[in-house]
Amino acid sequence: MLKTDLVLAAEKAPNPIIPHIPEVILGLVAFLILLFVLKKYVVPRFEAAYEERAQMIEGGIEKAEKAQAAAEDALAKYKAQLAEARTEAAKIRDDARLEAEQIKAELRAEAEAESQRIVAQGQAQLQAQKAQIIAELRADMGRNAVELASRIVGESLEDEVRRRGTVDRFLAELETAGASNGAGK
């Protein structure tokens, strides 16, 4: 009996593997209510938050791309300006060299002209001094010659016209004698 009571009790006891139907129905209704609440209230909020987040990310990416494009444009402009500045600096440097060469050539020409002017002025002064010295020497030689001739001749050669003619004749003789001695050497 004991055995039979046990078997009977075991047959009457619910099977732990098979669920109870009212629990399954209650669980299914609770799940459907939860699914409805999630779909009606929670999912739209998640979708809105997701959409907002996606737009923020896309906006951030667009802003970053725009900023990067602007930075690349600014870099290209900077490089172009830098290249232009270098070109302009090279041009200015070349112009300065050319101008320096022109100034140097002008200064040389001015110095050469000044040198030639100074030489010409010096030669003119030398010619004037030479003419003055020759005139003074002629006058001195004339006086000495007249005095000497007066002593030799024994008469006075004080007459100016006579004296001048005698001096000129004497100097002419000296010059011809000097020229013939210079040619004979």
Notes on the protein architecture:
Helix content is 91%, strand content 0%. By secondary structure, the protein is mainly α. It has one domain. The protein is rod-shaped. The chain crosses the membrane at residues 20-38.
Helical stretch count?
3
Instruction: Please tally the β strands and state the result.
Output: 0
Approximate shape: rod-shaped
Largest sheet: none
In the residues, how many domains can be counted?
A: 1
Mean pLDDT: 83
Could you spell the SSE succession in H and E letters? HHH
Structural class: mainly alpha
* Percent in helix: over 70%
Strand residue percentage: under 5%
User: What low-confidence regions span 5 or more consecutive residues with pLDDT below 50?
Assistant: none
Describe the secondary-structure layout.
Blueprint: H1 2-12, H2 21-153, H3 160-184
Name its key features.
ATP synthesis, 185 residues, single chain, ion transport, CF(0), 91% helix, ATP_synth_B-like_membr_sf, cell membrane
Brief description of this entry?
The protein has 185 residues and is an all-alpha fold. The chain is built from three helices and no strands. Helices cover 91% and strands 0% of the residues.
